[in-house]
Amino acid sequence: MALDNKIDNHDKRSIQDMIAKKKNGKNITSITEKVMPAILFLIAAVSILTTIGIVYTLLTETIEFFKRVPIMDFFTGTVLKPLSQNPEFGVLPLINGTIISSIIAMLVAGPIGIMTAVFLSEYASERVRRTLKPMLEILAGIPTIVYGFFAFTFVTPLIREFFPSVEATNILSPGLVMGVMIIPMIASLSEDAMTSVPNAMREGALALGSTKLEVTFRVVIPAALSGIIASFVLGISRAIGETMIVTIASGSSKNFTFDITQSMQTMTAYIVEVSGGEAPAGSTIYYSLYAVAMTLFVFTLIMNLLARYVSRKFREEY
User: Fold this and answer.
1) Regarding predicted confidence, which is higher, 180 or 9?
2) Cystine design at 235: which of 124, 172, 182, 269 (Cβ 3.0–4.6 Å)?
3) Mean pLDDT of 75-86
4) Overall number of domains in the chain
5) Contacts by 53-62 with C-beta closer than 8 Å and gap 24+?
6) Of all residues in the chain, what percent are helix, strand and coil, respectively (each to 5)?
7) 40 and 151, same domain (yes or no)
8) pLDDT of 4 above 80
9) Which of 91, 102, 71 is CA-nearest to residue 293?
10) Are residues 157 and 224 both part of a single domain?
């Protein structure tokens, strides 16, 4: 009897210990459930806070610049001479160089990228696709400074062999190389959009007597149009924001011209030039760095918003 009571008391203590441990575990779980959302929110807010900090810095310094230089002179001026005795700060030469280099890049990357995507999506076997797509995406992993030296030491001399009038630094060469650089972006995103088109649409078109080429250009591409356009817009954004290629190969001449054989400067190249130490802090040229950076920020923001709008506007639901 005494032994049975002893066993019962031992069981009661064990049950009490288990209940106590369960309560402690619940307390720890409760604390964790309350703390983790706050930690996750702070981690998620890092990118937002960083963006707010960047915009605040650009705005404050840009406002200081426009206190010294009229905003209309900045956005309508065609002469940029920040280091002359009578400095002028017209941003149009930089905008012109940025747009021209981006157009050249898209003229290269657009057709090649879309045709590559068509081949990978519609004509290549699964084995070929698994082999070629990673090889294509290697281009995206090459440092841009390597592209810049490639443009300056190989592409420019090659162009001058056929067109001697091309200057040693020009906007054509970096534009062509930027086009090569963004081919993987356009090809990969477009191929993903085409692959997502249901096979039933292809099979239905083939059953109606369409050829493979007709199915590709009359069924698949229209169905994947939102993704293709978004890839183009993102490619243009990438070209607008490119720095090292244009800094090395396009020169630093602030010419307002449409002659692609001449040297021009883009907004990113100007930022690199000014931040290289020639502009003392607090000077007008120093603050012009932030005004140009703010202009570039607005450009890329508009392109990204356009990409989102196009994706939503023309998105096909299957």
Assistant:
1) 180
2) 182
3) 82
4) 2
5) 54/297, 55/297, 57/290, 58/290, 58/293, 58/294, 58/297, 59/294, 61/287, 61/289, 61/290, 61/291, 62/287, 62/290, 62/291, 62/294
6) 80, 0, 20
7) no
8) no
9) 91
10) yes
- CA 249 vs. chain centroid, Å, equals 21
- On average, the pLDDT of the chain sits at 82
Question: In terms of domains, do 149 and 292 share one?
Answer: yes
Q: Cβ of 164: how many Cβ atoms within 10 Å? A: 7
pLDDT band at 14 (very low <50, low <70, confident <90, very high): low
Same domain, 203 and 62: no
| Rounded Cα distance, 179 and 170, in Å | 15
Greatest mean pLDDT among 26-35, 108-117, 276-285: 108-117
Q: 135: domain range?
A: 80-313
**CA-CA distance, 214 to 204, in Å (whole number)?**
12
Question: 50 and 128 in one domain?
Answer: no
Residues 34 and 162 in one domain: no
What mean pLDDT comes out for the span 42-57? 87
Please tell me what DSSP assigns to residue 75. H
pLDDT in tens, 203-214: 888 888 878 888
Residue predicted with more confidence, 15 or 272: 272
Q: What token pair was written down for 41?
A: 């929110």
Say if residue 63 is in the same domain as residue 130: no
Q: Which residues of 43-74 are buried (b: 16+ CB within 10 A; e: fewer)?
A: eeeeeeeeeeeeeeebeebbeebeeebeeeeb
Q: Which candidate, 282, 301, 316, 267, places its Cα nearest to that of 64?
A: 282
How far is Cα 293 from Cα 249, in angstroms, rounded to an integer?
21
Q: What are 44's two structure tokens?
A: 């998620």
pLDDT band per the 50, 70, 90 thresholds, residue 7: very low
For CA atoms 31, 37, 38, 40, give the dihedral sign. positive
Decide if 37 is inside a domain. yes
